[in-house]
TrEMBL record:
Pfam families linked: Glyco_hydro_1 (PF00232)
Annotated InterPro entries: GH (IPR017853), GH_1_N_CS (IPR033132), Glyco_hydro_1 (IPR001360), Glyco_hydro_1_AS (IPR018120)
Entry annotated with the keyword Hydrolase: yes
Family: Belongs to the glycosyl hydrolase 1 family.
Protein name: 6-phospho-beta-glucosidase
Residues at the active site: E373 (nucleophile)
Organism in which the protein naturally occurs: Mixta tenebrionis
GO molecular function: beta-glucosidase activity
Gene Ontology CC entries for this record: cytosol
Matches recorded under PROSITE patterns: GLYCOSYL_HYDROL_F1_1, GLYCOSYL_HYDROL_F1_2
């Protein structure tokens, strides 16, 4: 096919406050969940909610505390994005910059001023901000005092925060996402939703009750956004990628169906406005009882305007999946697919899987899609001249953008594309800087050493050409 994207298609890149900003105690910011997640051997146990970290330790390194110092360097970084031709930039607001503890009645004006300046800088360069309200960070006070999303009170704290953002940045931001990769709550509960478990608890009960509270909060925030400005466009956000049956054995096909349902549960509610029918049996068999209030069903009917998602890899499922035969490379477990190659971190590289995922999601939801994360984590080594020839990244992105064009040609409406980690940042999964995604190199290593100087990789110039041609020139 001839690669063809619609007029007005938004091209850009994405990052998250917790992986880029740093300045973790500046400007009145309070400590957040991500600020308690160390680099090293204990990182996964903390992310999974198996090891309590309600304070930081002097003997550990916390990558989020400084990250890539986007907080002080955003003007320089946005100028580089503008040089590439970005028409959209996805970032997030750190909740604890606006409400340092999370339960205050009045916001931190210094936090509001920072983001107003950030979004104004985007607009100055004709870049549309796409803003996530909650991207894997929440105020630690809400975790310690209320148990995070276990408590229904957190709904009120979130909607107050959301309203503050919608009002403060009205006219600067029109594209909003409520929760980043909301389904990761089920797989990485502390990093996803601030959840920590006690030994006697049923983790599934806690996770799905917290999920209910997040879904109510998302629907209420969507309603508030539309009331404040009917032009606001609010999306949900899925960690995407279909599960393939490992074989045509019927039990494997059923296992893949169940895994897809689990993955899509949140988006089913946010895009369709009700719990899917299959959850009744699942809750019953897992001993889960969701506590609700009268009116919750009506609240959930406030659905999103579009469905956004990340796509890095497809996944494989079988009836015999277990901890011994699934990949440890990602919190969403998968069997290794023998038909595709994998990245250095074991993530299957599957461009056709993107087209499959997009067709499935549009068939299911009938809402416009927005691909807001896609990229290749790799070890980039500057040569003697400081150049980085990341042809492997160009190849990955080229094939995925072609698959995106195929999905559009299939009839799937797509708003735009923001590649993940357009500037090198801290990896959410491993806490490494060496797992790089960007078009822009940042001089910093896994232990926080380096000058933080920015430099353009070969992919920078390639992506600039892609944007200038509206996706027609991928060579």
């Amino acid at each position: 096919m001839t690669t063809k994207f619609p007029a007005g298609f938004l091209w850009g890149g994405a990052l998250a406050a917790n992986q880029a900003e740093g300045a973790w105690r500046e400007g009145g910011k309070g400590p957040a969940t991500v600020d308690m997640i160390p680099h090293g051997k204990d990182r996964l146990a903390v992310k999974l909610g198996q090891q309590k970290r309600f304070s930081w330790r002097e003997d550990e390194f916390y990558p989020s505390h400084e990250a890539i110092d986007f907080y002080h360097r955003y003007k320089e970084d946005i100028a580089l994005m503008a040089e590439m031709g970005f028409t959209v930039f996805r970032t997030s607001i750190a909740w604890s910059r606006i409400y340092p503890q999370g339960d205050e009645l009045t916001p931190n004006e210094a936090g509001i001023a920072f983001y107003r300046d950030l979004f104004s800088e985007c607009k100055k360069h004709h870049i549309e901000p796409l803003v996530t309200l909650c991207h894997f960070d929440m105020p630690m006070h809400l975790v310690k005092e209320y148990g995070s999303w276990r408590s229904r009170k957190t709904i009120d704290f979130f909607t107050r925060y959301a309203r503050t953002c919608f009002e403060a940045f009205d006219g600067l931001v029109k594209y909003w996402l409520t929760f980043n990769e909301i389904n990761i709550l089920l797989h990485s509960p502390f990093s996803g939703a601030g959840l920590v478990f006690e030994q006697h608890e049923n983790p599934q009960q806690i996770k799905y009750q917290a999920a209910h509270h997040e879904l109510i909060a998302s629907a209420l925030a969507t309603k508030i956004a539309h009331e404040i400005n009917p032009q606001n466009q609010v999306g949900c956000m899925l960690a995407g990628g279909n599960f393939y049956p490992y074989s045509c054995k019927p039990e494997d096909v059923w296992a893949a169906l169940e895994k897809d349902r689990e993955n899509l549960f949140f988006i089913d509610v946010q895009a369709r406005g009700a719990y899917p029918a299959w959850t009744r049996r699942m809750f019953r068999e897992q001993g889960i009882t969701i506590e609700t209030l009268p009116g919750d069903d009506d609240i959930l009917k406030e659905t999103v305007d579009f469905v956004s998602f990340s796509y890095y890899a497809s996944r494989c499922a079988s009836a015999e999946m277990n901890n011994d035969n699934t990949s440890a490379a990602n919190v969403v477990k998968s069997l290794k697919n023998p038909w595709i190659k994998a990245s250095e971190w074991g993530w299957g590289i599957d461009p056709l899987g993107l087209r499959i995922t997009m067709n499935m999601m549009y068939d299911r939801y009938q809402k416009p899609l927005f691909l807001v994360e896609n990229g290749l984590g790799a070890k980039d080594e500057p040569d003697a001249s400081g150049n980085i020839d990341d042809d492997y990244r160009i190849s990955y992105l080229r094939e995925h953008i072609r698959a995106l064009a195929e999905a559009i040609d299939d009839g799937v409406p797509v708003i735009g594309y923001t590649s993940w980690g357009c500037i090198d940042l801290v990896s959410a999964s491993t806490g490494e800087m060496s797992k790089r995604y960007g078009f822009i190199y940042v001089d910093r290593d896994d232990r926080g050493k380096g000058t933080l100087a920015r430099s353009r990789k070969k992919s920078f110039w390639w992506y600039k050409k892609v944007i200038a041609s509206n996706g027609a020139d991928l060579n």
